[in-house]
Amino acid sequence: MKNRKSVIRLSRYKNELHRFKTQGAVRIVSNDLAYAVGVTASQVRKDFSLFGISGNRRGGYKIDELIAWLNKILRKDEVQKVIIVGAGNIGSALMQYSGFAKEGIQIIAGFDIDPLKCRRVGAVSIYPLEKLNAFVRDNGIGIGILAVPENAAQPVLDIMVGAGIKGVLNFAPIRLRAPEECVINSVNLVPELENVIYFSNAVREKSE
Amino acid sequence: MKNRKSVIRLSRYKNELHRFKTQGAVRIVSNDLAYAVGVTASQVRKDFSLFGISGNRRGGYKIDELIAWLNKILRKDEVQKVIIVGAGNIGSALMQYSGFAKEGIQIIAGFDIDPLKCRRVGAVSIYPLEKLNAFVRDNGIGIGILAVPENAAQPVLDIMVGAGIKGVLNFAPIRLRAPEECVINSVNLVPELENVIYFSNAVREKSE
DNA sequence: ACATTATTGTGAATTTTGGAACAAAAAAGT
DNA sequence: ACTTTTTTGTTCCAAAATTCACAATAATGT
Questions:
Q1: Domain spanning B80-191: which CATH class is it, in words?
Q2: Class of the CATH domain delimited by B4-73
Q3: Nucleotides of strand D under 7 angstroms from a protein beta carbon
Q4: Residues 6+ away with beta carbon under 8 Å from A21
Q5: In chain B, what residues touch A92 (CB-CB under 8 Å)?
Q6: Which residue ranges does chain A devote to CATH 1.10.10.10?
Q7: How confident is chain A (208 residues) per 10-residue block, as mean pLDDT?
């Protein structure tokens, strides 16, 4: 029903809607949004219908209403406070990544085992890992980004889960195990790039 | 047939196989690999069968042979030279990301419009964007990582395509248009995190 | 040598996902 | 008022992906 893919598409619709809005549009029809995002119009309508969003049978959807709906569904009514664990290359980059702030996602703190990395990166202070538990509890944080090396990932995740984290975006290239009530979504950079390499070669070979 | 997902899984199998190998294993059965990666055993066998990898009807697959096959399929016999365009947070982080080097992917150069960013990051030199075309042609580069801001993404991609890039891993949160012969794979960080936020809330609400 | 067991490889069944098509509804025109 | 046009919402259909299930077969034990 409401699956990973449909939620991801919702985010992408939202993004394109902002773009349409800045161009002065007030209403949008499924067809145009579909083209912008790269899916079919029925897909768009189906997604909206799935989440109870309805438009008008002529004149399509009001952009402001749509954005409001999407923001509500995606919890954008409140600022989402997120921690990042691991202040290496990826972790540090994400601490400064403006895309998050733009979408109301606030990186509230970073954590790392290495005391040398417990400095400040952009607007984010990095604390020693031992402080994670108390910090998460005291601030009621639910979401974390895991950007530590492969072999540290599982133990660090366990600490996060133990502290009460309920959702993790993981960058370690490894399968993590967590209790059901904790949602894990992994971004695997190497496989994604290998995928590009594979298909760009496949395309070339087909045309030879 | 050979779809995006199956190729991504191959990468993940490879990763887990290295892990098994360092633990001293010589052979592996589909069941164990499946468990490690988090898929079903038939999925593993189907994937292998799809790419013409075969095992032994007792005793499973020889790990070394498997890794050799996967490396061949994923083009790991040669070092893959990749450029990164955009030396902001994400781009710079990827230039130093050890995961790529570990998998035989060499970041050979970076490019950016901003002259201030044309410095050196780790082992990677960053050149002005104007030099991209010549560099790509002279070095026969086929793969690029696109890590520029949203509004620069399409024009910069056009430059890359014009220079002969045939595969792109894109981090800009926007739909890109490229000729068929250029493969594009996008990693959208904000939607991925929003996905975690959505489902972690959905899980909590279900249990209330 | 033969029986037994473990495990692959694959065809069939199932589930999931996406797309086409069209009736229902709202707006616009006449 | 009513006809036409546009566009949604939804049902039905197709394709893709996944899992099931089991025959084929290779190793092992007796």
A1: alpha beta
A2: mainly alpha
A3: 5-11, 16-21, 24-28
A4: A63, A64, A67
A5: 89, 93
A6: 4-73
A7: 93 97 96 97 98 94 97 95 97 97 96 97 97 98 98 98 98 96 96 97 78
